[in-house]
Amino acid sequence: MLFRSLRGAGQLRNAAVAVAAVESLRQRLPVAMQAVRRGLVELDLPGRFQVLAGRPTIVLDVAHNPQAVSGLAERLVELPFATRTIAVVGMLADKDIAGSLAALAGRIDHWLLADLDVPRGASATALATAVRERGLGGEIECFPSATIAFQRSAELAGENDRILVFGSFYTVAAVMRSRQDGR
Fold first, then answer.
1. Closest to 61 measured CA to CA, from 152, 163, 138, 140
2. What's phi and psi for 67, nearest 5 deg?
3. Selection from 50, 43, 68 nearest residue 165 by Cα
4. Residue 83 phi, psi dihedral angles, 5° rounding
5. What is the pLDDT of residue 23?
6. CA atoms of 65 and 116, how far apart (whole Å)
7. Which residues of the chain are modeled with pLDDT < 50?
8. C-alpha–C-alpha distance, residues 173 and 142, integer Å
9. Left if phi > 0, otherwise alpha if psi is -120 to 50, otherwise beta: which for 135?
10. How confident is the model at residue 9, as a pLDDT?
């Protein structure tokens, strides 16, 4: 793909809107098309449907509302087949937790739900309640942090599995930090 960071139709639509905005503002804010092309080619969106190299496949996405998680669910089908999908999820309590997770009904084999230790953070047990009440399927485990949940995902995942980390910027950032620190 020409735009390596723009995975999925939603991100391509966003890029098209940005190009249209630049074009419509050309009289007031001239930007060379070469600069626009370079920006699109070099664009890096860590944590936005970021697929990490290696096996198992690890996908990081800051999706945290029903629309974003629906887009995430749609983009998962673009990836190669995975035997199982293991989700590491931490969310803020003031988000539509049940509505967000509903987009992944029947697509997650193992939910690893994490407390978010921030003022607005939801508990893993609140997430587990949403998964059970919505009948989303899959096994459920609860953890005190996204880092510990991610460590558990590494224990569970085989090389043909997929680990999906999502639900909050805090969740994805914690997992990214733990990977950088080698934990």
1. 163
2. -65, -45
3. 50
4. -65, -50
5. 79
6. 16
7. 1-2
8. 19
9. left
10. 59
Coil, helix or strand at residue 95: coil
Three-class SS of residue 80? coil
Residue type, 133: E
Question: Strands 110-114 and 85-89: what pairing?
Answer: parallel
| 92 CB-near residues (< 8 Å, 6+ apart) | 64, 116, 118, 120, 121, 122, 168, 170
Rg (CA), the chain: 18
Give the whole-angstrom CA distance, residue 39 versus residue 17.
14
Residue in this structure with the two tokens 């994490």, named with its chain if needed? 114
Pairwise CA distance, residues 166 & 61, whole Å: 5
Report whether 157 contacts 163 (CB < 8 A). yes
Amino acid residing at 84: R
Q: Is 113 helix (H, G, I), strand (E, B) or coil?
A: strand
| Residue pair 174/165 in contact by the 8 Å Cβ criterion | no
What is the pLDDT, as a whole number, of residue 149? 98
pTM of the predicted structure, to 2 decimals: 0.81
